[in-house]
Amino acid sequence: MPFPNIDPVALHLGPLTIRWYALGYLAGVFVGAWYATSLLNRPKLWANNKPPFPAPAIWDFAFWSVIGIVLGGRIGYVLFYNLPYYAANPVEVFSLWDGGMAFHGGLIGILIAMALFTRARGGNILSSFDLLGAIGTIGIFLVRIANFINGELYGAPTNLPWAVVFPTDPDALPRHPSQLYEALLEGLLLFVIVLIATRVFRALKRPGLVAGIFGIGYASSRILVEFVRLPDVQVGYLLGTGWLTMGQVLSVPILAAGLALVAYAMVRPRG
């Protein structure tokens, strides 16, 4: 499959360079907040007919979410993927323009931001996590598409007909477009599953259930794709296995938390 070779830079505004990667994050926050309003404006979807906070407040949270994602994502990358380098070059921690964000760190950051935001408004924190589970797949889809445009995080060599030769690959080999696998599984497919759960089966009536479904779906998809996605070069495969990656290890707690949330939500009375 030919690489579309889209310029990673979306816009040049004088000295300002705007990349698709940054736009993916911003669009994910904006579109996610817009979709969240349709859920928050329907009290009957929620436990006790009470959403975690009023719909207009989601636009206030959008600011909190950006801070949580950026801080959590960057700190997670530093700690999980390149700690020796940043310990030797601490100033580089702040060089966000050079890249380096970790989904798992960003997830922790936005969960903390949402918990603080909801607590300040007296809402149900588990229900607010459900809201994140319902909208989070949108941002994942857009950012993974941006990863593909950047020609980064590609997979192992393959002879499959949809293999891609990335211009950033020094070996110029046909490889798994693992970014697209993640966009389809963690983004599109998981969005549809959560949509059915919320709209058809009224899963938001059980606080924690949608968040649990999201956790199970994301972690399972990420663990699966990591078998064909190349690990970060500075980390490599763990324990000399030739297959175990940091992404898989970090996804296991998310899978466990998702299973625990689903179990908890199902044994509680339906709100």
The number of helical segments is: 8
* Termini Cα gap: 49 Å
Please list the strands of the largest sheet in the order they lie side by side. Answer: 1-2
Rg, Cα atoms, Å:
19 Å
What are the secondary-structure elements, in order, as H or E?
EEHHHHHEEHHH
Using DSSP, what is the number of strands? 4
Q: Structural class of the helices, strands and pairings?
A: mainly alpha
Percent of residues in helices? 55-70%
Q: What do the pLDDT scores average to? A: 95
- Uncertain spans: none
Which overall shape is indicated by the principal axes computed on the Cα atoms? Answer: globular
Largest sheet: 2 strands, antiparallel
Strand content: under 5%
Q: Could you characterize what this model shows?
A:
A two-stranded antiparallel sheet has the order 1-2. The model has no long low-confidence stretch (mean pLDDT 95). It contains 8 helices and 4 strands. The protein has helices at 20-40, 57-81, 83-88, 103-120, 125-150, 178-199, 209-225, 246-267; strands spanning 9-13, 16-19, 164-165, 174-175. It has a domain at 9-52 and 124-267. 58% of the residues lie in helices and 5% in strands.
Descriptive key words:
about 270 residues; 8 helices; mainly alpha; two-stranded antiparallel ribbon
Please specify the SSE layout and strand pairing.
Blueprint: E1 9-13, E2 16-19, H1 20-40, H2 57-81, H3 83-88, H4 103-120, H5 125-150, E3 164-165, E4 174-175, H6 178-199, H7 209-225, H8 246-267
Antiparallel strand pairs: 1-2, 3-4
Helix pairs in contact: 1-2, 1-5, 2-4, 4-5, 5-6, 5-7, 6-7, 7-8
